[in-house]
Predict the structure.
Amino acid sequence: MHFSGHDELERYAHVLDEAQAIKGVSLGKDAWRRLRKNYAAMASLVFLIVLFVLAMFVPFLPLQSPIRQDLSQRKFQPPSRVAPGLGVADLAEDEYRLAVDALFGERNAVDRALIDSRVALFGDRTIPSYFGTDELGRDLLARTMWGARVSLMVGIVATLVSLVIGVTYGAFAGYVGGAVDNLMMRFVDVLYSIPFIFVVIFLLTILSEDTIKQALGAWGINKIVIFYFVIGAIYWLTMARVVRGQVISLKEEQFIEAARTIGATRTAIVFRHLIPNLLSIAIVYLTLTIPAVMLFEAFLSFLGLGVDPPDVSWGILANDGIKVITPVRIYWWLVVFPGLALAMTLFALNFLGDGLRDALDPRMKNR
Amino acid sequence: MPFNPRNLFPYFAGLLALAALGYAVTFGKLPPADFTFINGTEVQSIDAGKVSGVPEHRIIEALFEGLFRQDPQSLKPIPGVAARHEVSADGRTYDFYLRPNARWSNGSPVTAHDFWWSWRRVLHPETAGEYAYQLYYLENAEKYNSAQVEVRDRVEIELDDRLRQVEPFPRGTMVRGTLRDIIKPDEPEIPATATRDERNDFLARWKRAWVYVVDIDGEQRRFSPEAHDAPTVEKCLQVLLDFDEVGVQVVDDRHLRVQLTNSTPFFLHLMAFYSTFPLHRESIEHYGRDWTKPQNLVNNGAFRMAFRRIRDRIRLVKNPEYWDADRVHLNVVDAMAVNSPTTMLNMYMNGQVDWAETIPTAAVPDMLKHYQEHVRSAPMLTTYMYRLNTKRKPLDDVRVRKALAMAMNKREICELILRAGQQPARSLVPPGMEGYEQAEGVPYDVEQARQLLAEAGFPDGKGMRKLEILYNDHEAHKTIAEKIQSDWLKNLNVRTELKALEWGVYLDSINQFQYDVARYAWVGDYPDPNTFLDMFLTDGTNNRTGWSEPKYDELIAAAAAETAPEKRLQTLHDAERILMDGQPIIPIYYYVSLNLVRPYVHGFHTNVQDLHPLSAIRIDPEEKSRHLRALK
Amino acid sequence: MFQFIVKRLVWLVLTLWAVFTVSFILMKIVPGGPYQAERNLPPEVEQNIRAQFHLDDPLHIQYRDHLWDTVRGDFRSSFKLKDFTVNEVIAQGFPVSASLGVLAMLFALTLGLTAGIVSALRRGGVLDLAFMALATVGIAVPNFVLASIAVLIFVFKLGWFPAAGWGTLAQLVLPALCLGLPFAAYIARLTRTGMLEVLSKDYIRLAYAKGLSSRRVVLRHALRGAVLPVVSYLGPATAGILTGSLVLERIFALPGMGSHFIDAALQRDYTLVMGMVLVYTLLLYTMNFLVDLSYAVIDPRVKLH
């Protein structure tokens, strides 16, 4: 191989062309391009989006009532095509309100509006009991879907809480640096050695003490809200560590240096450079923490510390399901469907998380 | 390769793992028991003075024996430690003659002193036995137990000189005398906003400052539970009525005389109840709170405790010192502590246990259908009910309480949820009390219920706040609560919230009136309506609804004093009528027992209290192994 | 090294102190004491008892006394299990949980490492796919669901194990399997990723080029690199196994720390809860410490500080 000036020049031109072509591609777009090639992750993403949208619009879906019982006719029915109507469409205003309350429980204004439009659109028609019914004759499909709301909300909100705590804490420690950073990180190390789950169980039992519960209730804080904060408060440690590491290495990066030399303000640096770079970690972290939180919710439900009826969650449903598994009779649908819903969501989140991590990690380009 | 300690690491780790594995598998090799049964939740204590649960009952009954015991089949009291007894004509004086061969497990005889001492311990306010009130039929027992003293009473004062402060029995120096005066400081001003607890706190602190002037052998001395500056006031722990005033008296070692306030027709039943069992004084005084440990325990029942592992098992072995040991058939018994009905069923179906105390609700129909010869079921003297807190709005309105009762479909609960032959209840007292006619409350009537609710100011449930249904997290309570939640919502548009608590915590909440509606069940302690009805006396220990009706109290008291059986039952019936009209409770159904018992277990009789003394149970080992082989 | 150990000990004491203080505060926030709620005492008698138990002392005195008892290793008596002290409960429960945890951990390591290595070597093969599918199931299904189904299959369909209880090895196998499975799954994934990364390294190619047998290459060289992430995972895995044993001990009615802890928490047996949280903290801290130590032993590049 020999070198010639001509070749050299050609090569530079080539590199320049390449650079030109890449120039407009941001980190996000690049990651998206890589993610799209990962079919498992994409399928998971689609599944999760569909699930999320469905869960948001559960009251609007033509489901049966999640709480109406039918002990005499529909106790422990295996999956079937029976679809009892709601029986509310033809009622007068007053009676209609009462009947809807009896079917769906106490709901906020948005949910009520959704239910109203659902009745307006679908009338009394409902989706048949494809998932079977439980020991009180309630439709499991409807319960699973309403449970999706609670489970997803707990997963997402609690994770967001932990994200906020973790990012703030980690970013602060990393940005300030020095002795403060050292102390803050030692604190995180200490917390790592505390078996939080035990403390949380302790805390939850104390918070459900009647007087304390009433005091909290006056502030509009119910069990689900407590879940958000308590669970959120224990999952931030890893996030804080990772974010701190990122901030420290970013501080040293040349492009930050460069931005500073060309006179970018501090806020601009934070918003244009630090946050977008942290965002990728945050997204990966989100998708990997949500499943952990959802499992934790199921675990608490198993211990009898879950949400209170008539609210349901997948954890509660799965726990109710295993209670009726006995060697003499197995009502398989009561375990299989909630278990499957939970497992599929966790699957999808795991796949998506792995995919995102690969896609967002430049070193993973060739994998 | 040069030596490097790092290279040893994998071997070291492997060795560690092996050691751990060895450690893991070398535990708990127990020889198998003759008879294994599931005893439900972990026994809180085997100290008869301190407990009230069914699992505790089974163990204590196997370890100790009272003056009487219950016939395993009919549950009639039959002589235990007492060989015979005499009752005075007015039915108020009982003379018990103890059998000479009744012995403690260390060989020493069981004497009348043991009973006297044990009853005193149960009644002592500091022991605060949950079942102390079973002895309230004795003269002055209630006064002693509730620590009330009046001027001119004979009193006993315990001085503040205990060896150990925390004792299973108070044993500071006792002085006795006659109370001459109580010097009380000014009553504290209690702010109107104070809660019940704060109020009690104020009063308690005030009462601790009282100075008791006592005449002891002609000398006047002053005592107070609180340290006073004045040197003339001696510090004491408490001032109680002299126990000699209570109606129990040791005539001699084998003769115990009991003096009752009223003739009490069911008194012998109480003598077969564990809160009246004797405890061994020397071992309790010697070991302190460790007296319940297997190695320290001295007992007088059919079995000894050989071994105890928390939340695993209590192993009982036959007590050779027991006077009736010849008629005890089992040598080794395991009482397993298992909480979950599903696990119980698993263990039973798997042949690990011979008797399981209940069946998971979901499995009941299948068990009744396919395993009929295993299910031993009978109606019980037990009522499942919802208590209503009549001190809270809107439940203070009897119309609301009645509406709730009438909007509850009890028949569906029995026939569609429980499905084991339970009967819907409309009265507190279950059927099966000889000669007693129940007073039935309101029926299921939705129309009427709505009307009552509207009259109370809540048409269609409007304006009614959300109620909370409290239950202990066990068995079908949740399912029943969800059913009732749905009934009330559907029929009355009354909203409810469910709250599950662990048993002890749930009891606390009820005791502190922190509930709206609470699930409860009462197991009759003896086959007489009184065991149900005396719960709802004003401020009764187990009332806990805040309901109070002077007429009701009068009738219960009148019944207690009544000697003619028929008249007495009629008076109790009238009382129950008032109770059902007041509706502080909603009876829901009467229990049936649901025992799973292997066919080779003999001497297991179904009865109305679901009691199955272990001393009566027999097993033929050959039959057992044949049966278990067939199972595999 | 020595300095590292001393430093860690100091932090351990601080951690335990923090946990104690938080537990103490939580315990005191709750209205009502153990002697108030359950029994129906005349208020003045109750006051007497409170005085005897020093429950009416000022809070800082109570804190000091309780802390001193705890330092001496006396966790006081259980509120609800009236026949036992907290120390006795822990002493009875610990061996059960420890044996369950050890078995589960060994199982997780054996299965996880084997599956991970096999998957990595047969990348894309049927075994790889099967193992990884299984691993994902282990991660995505709550262990109580898994355990209930396992009971049906292994106890009632196959009749291999007893349904519940503790005492024999056979009674421990099923709970240990169910407890270990999620961690086996995670370890398998870690091992697989680690192995794939290491196998593509130059020194492995060199080893092959030297003519070493592939078994030797895998076990001597590749595994050592791949095992590092697994070792660092052992810390969190211990925490996970402690948590998981709460569920498994309950389902299989094992008389271990987990059962005692859950019941204590649900029964609000605060002294017992506090004692157990402290013991759990100590355990977790020790495990993390050992993991850090062994990490340094395995990988010469790691410095302890």
User: Anything to note?
Assistant: The mean pLDDT of chain B is 88.
